[in-house]
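Re-run with default settings, no changes from the original entry. Doing this only to confirm the output is reproducible before filing.
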Amino acid sequence: MAGRHMPSLLRPRSIQARTALMSAVLSLVFLTVIGFSLDIAIRNRIHDHLFMETQRVATDWISSMGSGGVPEPPAGHKDLVQLVDSRNRVITASRAARGLPPLTTPFPTGQDPLQYRIDCPDEGRCVVLTAVRVLPMQSRLFWDGEPHAVYAGRTEPGLLASRRLELFIGIGVLLMTAGWTWASWRVAGRTLRPVREIRERVTEISVRDLTLRVPQPSGRDEIAELARASNHLLEHLDTSVRQQKHFASMVSHELRSPLAGLRTQLEEALLYREETDPYETIRTAVRTTERCQAIIDEMLTVARVRTAATGEPELVSLGALAREEAAARTDGVPVHVDVEDEVTVLGNRVQLCGVLTNLMVNAQRHACSRVDVTVGRAGGEAVVTVLDDGDGIAPEDRERVFEPFVRLKEGRRRDPKGTGLGLALCRVTADTHHGTLRVEDSPRGARFVLRLPLPAGVSPVGAGQALSR
């Protein structure tokens, strides 16, 4: 069981804790390496200094040995100086080294007369010393040629002997690791603070209220981009939910009246069987059902275009499509098509065909004598204009006509059976194709203008060849 819980202990859930833990581990390893290197450097520096001092003491004493004999050893209270013979017996020593055995063994050889050594007895501090062999001329002068040597040493400082250096370095490593870990914890906490605020705000947001937005920090880092993307998504969700609620309320309103009338007629037929013509009741019910079915079908079409993911787009020639749809409009006022420039767009052919059909049908319904359809381009957009010579649309109603189930008085008079979803479907289709559909000014009649982006890198000739294949 302990093995199962170990990974969770070593890997905390919090990103802040994981960041601090990783920083602590890395800083501890890094600072330990630095502390180990610093310990070696300090020890070597102190030892080198002691070697230089002991060598100076030994060589100065040897240099003072002349015709006047062997002088007394140096009297420094820190200097451990001994004169030993070839059998490593102490001949004379300084006051600090009297009574001590030889500071080091073995006796230095003739091939290596100067040696640096660190001797550590079983008890006590280590001795850093220099062993120097006396010159042969001096050995012949004083000891009949028997080799002698001078041992000059100093006791290792307490900082090194008691391991206090390692203790101080270890404490420093731990303090610096703790400081670095604390700094990493604070920095990670400050960095992740916007994330916590976003999480807290997201928990407050519900489907019933999508007006709230997450806090958006300044800057262009990943957290700021996440906040902007989240707000963008919330805005789209809010718009979609509001459209869905509005759409559902309008659908229920449009269906409530015919269904209520249908129910009333059926109830009257049941209550007044002898006074009611059953065939007339059935015919009326069929007409009401057809109207309800038309509303539901167009409602589903609008919902499908708005929410369904579009398939693979294809090259569509708007000029050819306009000619085909105009040729199919044999009833009503004539439709004239003028293709100023062959333009091709990427999109759903069936949906774009539905847009042109609805615009032409709407224009024929309100036109007096003719409908003009113009296909061209303006800048980087394909432009399709459908113009009728009717009474036109008032400026305050030019956006209302694209709302679902909105029908102006003239439209209800000319087409009592209409549902008011045709232009709404056209606007939704234009939006899904990253285009626009608006009612623009015209000297007479209503002028609907559809603008769609032109695909990059597709020429009209190439598009026509692609369509012909």
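The two ends are 69 Å apart (CA to CA). Residues 1-6, 460-469 have pLDDT under 50 and may be disordered.
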